[in-house]
Write a structure and sequence with these properties.
Layout: H1 3-29, E1 37-46, H2 55-71, E2 77-80, H3 82-86, H4 92-102, E3 107-109, H5 122-140, E4 149-150, H6 161-173, E5 177-178, E6 183-184, H7 187-199, H8 203-232, E7 238-243, H9 246-249, H10 252-261, E8 264-267, H11 269-272, H12 292-299, H13 314-323
Parallel strand pairs: 1-2, 1-7, 1-8, 2-3, 4-5, 6-7
The chain binds zinc ion (ZN).
């Protein structure tokens, strides 16, 4: 290329480059939609919550859950039940938990026996949590993780404030923080009916249960967003309680659509917990394990719009209760 035309080529290239910067600049100056609201996706009852003990079913569940979360580039957090991690043929529970960690997802402690602190003496509950801690600590070490978060089964944090504080004292002394819940969709009420339909090969029934679950999730997410705004006067970062079940593994794309439609953006648990709302006291003792918006509402003498809270379809929850009376 002759010198003159090389120079004009450079000039042309510089002009193109400059105008593309201007274009990018103009695009980024464009007023954007309301900022996305953070939501941490937490999955309880790892390795897998299922009424179906079949090893292949559980392996497929974990594989699909991981694949779905990766497909959407979602961070996620898993709370493991020590006793379930140790169970299953050929260390199945351990292997599934390892797959979760190898996929880049962190793990927290969800006790050994999945007991309720409201119905268990505190010393027994501490010993049970410590047993899970010892197992998880060993399994997490090769992945460069240590247990730092605890999730109470049934969200039961103690029938009295004295019990609650005693257990929280143990948690703090062992480097744990409590993972609260500010959004949930009763997936455990749908999950047994879905597992059962797949187990019996009734695919039409399974899909009907799944569709009802997705519809229900859309309605409760709307409710929780409105409740958060009503209680706090702003949109908080949410912590969403889900379970590591096939129903969720098969519904990640639908959940993603619901998040998009609600302007929710999945973030890590640690990031969601940086919202100052989680520094509020949750010193509320009740027979029922409440999520945290309800606790804060009680403490602030405010009422959430519970009359508008949707119920899961009764035929599905009745069937799940029959299939899994312990939940
Ligand atoms: Zn649980």
């Amino acid at each position: 290329m002759p010198t003159a035309s090389r120079r004009s080529f450079r000039r042309l290239a510089a002009t193109v480059l400059a105008s593309s910067f201007l274009l990018v600049g103009a695009l980024s100056l464009k007023p954007c939609r309301a900022e996305a609201e953070p939501v941490a996706l937490t999955f309880d009852d790892l390795p897998v919550m299922s009424i179906n003990d079949d090893a292949d079913y559980q392996r497929t569940t974990m594989a699909r859950l991981i694949k779905g979360l990766h497909r959407h580039h979602y961070p996620a957090f898993g709370f493991a039940i020590g006793g379930d991690v140790e169970s299953g043929p050929d260390h199945l529970g351990e292997r599934l938990l390892n797959e979760w960690m190898e996929a880049g997802f962190p793990v927290g402690n969800h006790t050994w026996s999945h007991n309720s602190l409201n119905k268990t003496p505190v010393e027994t509950y501490i010993a049970d949590t410590a047993r899970a801690d010892a197992l998880l600590r060993g399994l997490m070490r090769p992945h460069g993780q240590t247990p730092q978060w605890f999730r109470h089964p049934y969200l039961d944090t103690g029938a009295t404030l004295e019990d609650k504080h005693r257990f929280e004292g143990w948690l703090k002394a062992h480097g744990y923080r409590v993972a609260p819940v500010t959004m949930e969709n009763s997936d455990w009420e749908f999950s047994p009916a879905y597992d059962q339909a797949l187990k019996t090969g009734d695919l039409a029934k399974a899909e009907a249960v799944r569709r009802a679950y997705v519809r229900y999730t859309a309605s409760v997410v709307t409710w929780y967003r409105a409740a958060g705004l009503q209680l706090l006067g702003r949109r908080p970062a949410y912590v969403f309680l889900l379970h590591a079940c096939r129903l969720n593994a098969d519904s990640i794309d639908d959940l993603a659509r619901i998040f998009r439609e609600n302007g929710l953006k999945p973030v890590s648990l640690a990031k969601a917990m940086r919202d100052p709302v989680y520094r509020r006291s949750d010193d509320w003792a009740d027979a029922d394990g409440d999520e945290w918006l309800t606790r804060w509402a009680h403490l602030a003498h405010k009422k959430l719009d519970w009359d508008k809270f949707p119920d899961p379809p009764s035929d599905i929850s009745d069937e799940s209760d029959r299939l899994d009376p312990n939940e």
